[in-house]
Write a structure and sequence with these properties.
With about 325 residues, this protein is mostly helical. It is about 70% helix and about 0% strand. InterPro entries: CotB-like.
Length: about 325
């Protein structure tokens, strides 16, 4: 547990909310796409439910983009956590391979966003609060759907081409989105270093699992890349264990954050290279282009947190 005192925190409800939705609404809609692609033909109801969630997150993301022009943080827009230089190609290829419609207009619109100009439009706080509430209701429902599918799979009542651990992984990401949303809506102050600790513990586990999934989805003939993925998974597992250690002093915490930064830079580079190889049809695997680009954007999100973190709070003000 991190040893720290109370830190006075400052921030912006509108900006933090919109930054969160621009990232997580896209992540959630892609979870719906991956689940939809993973169900077998006989499970039409599950396919339809996943399609409905995808469409609902399209609408949520569309509203977030509309509200974010001249409001979103410059750090977020420059981080490549929302859209990379590969995302549009990955969407095009994944739509071609799966037959699942992907609204790529949202991607081009996100690329056009202008960052915060230093002023918040009047009346936007009420709109953003309403958007947060919509996202909470939708994500609660989606988390329940993910949990139900996971339960059906683990009881051998349903088959998908996703690992049970992948279903648990996407479920935890939905819960994490909800956790931050609730803090924002409830104007909840969080000790800054405790917030960073929570982020690092969570994303270390996510990054490690990404590496494990990649290792399992690569063709066995891709021996070097398989080994690289396993090495990265072990690296994050060790970091996660250290982050969960008892009584981390401030100096030790800083050192661990630097190690997390180094590891996340390495995994982001690995994912970026993997995305290029898949898009160029130079990699034997079961990975879709959008799946690997999806994990790259999550690494970029974590990198931005590690590189730009400063005391702040989740709430209005």
């Amino acid at each position: 547990m991190l040893v720290t005192g109370s830190v006075p925190l400052v921030g912006n409800f509108v900006r933090e909310s919109l930054d969160l939705h621009l990232f997580f609404a896209r992540i959630m809609r892609e979870h719906a796409i991956f689940m939809q692609a993973g169900f077998y033909p006989k499970d039409v109801t599950y396919v339809q439910q996943a399609e409905q969630f995808k469409c609902q997150y399209d609408e949520l993301l569309k509203e977030a983009i509309m509200l974010s022009d001249c409001t979103a943080s410059v750090d977020v827009l420059n981080s490549r956590e929302l859209v990379t230089d590969k995302t549009l190609r990955a969407e095009q290829k994944t739509q071609e391979l799966t037959g699942i419609f992907i609204d790529m207009v949202l991607t081009t619109e996100e690329l056009k966003l202008i960052p915060d100009l230093g002023t918040i439009p009047p009346g936007i706080e009420t709109q953003v609060s309403g958007l947060n509430q919509k996202a909470m209701v939708l994500t609660t429902s989606f988390a329940e759907f993910k949990a139900m599918v996971l339960d059906q799979v683990t009881q051998c009542c349903l088959a998908t081409n996703l690992f049970p651990s992948q279903l648990e992984h996407v479920y935890r990401e939905a819960l994490f989105y909800l956790k931050i949303l609730k803090r924002l809506q409830n104007n909840q102050f969080v000790d800054a270093r405790v917030d960073l600790l929570e982020q690092e513990v969570f994303w270390d586990e996510i990054m490690g699992e990404h590496a494990e999934f990649v290792a399992h989805f690569l063709d066995p003939s891709e021996k070097k890349l398989c080994q690289k993925a396993r090495d990265l998974a072990r690296r994050f597992e060790k970091l996660e264990q250290k982050m969960k250690g008892e009584g981390i002093p401030a100096s030790g915490f800083g050192q661990l954050t630097q190690k997390n930064l180094s590891a996340t830079l390495a995994v982001a580079e690995f994912k970026a290279r993997g995305t290029e190889l898949i898009l160029d049809c130079q990699l034997k695997s079961l990975l879709s282009p959008l799946l690997i680009d999806h994990t790259l954007r999550e690494a970029n999100y974590y990198l931005r947190i590690l590189q730009t973190w400063k005391p702040g709070y989740l709430g209005r003000g």
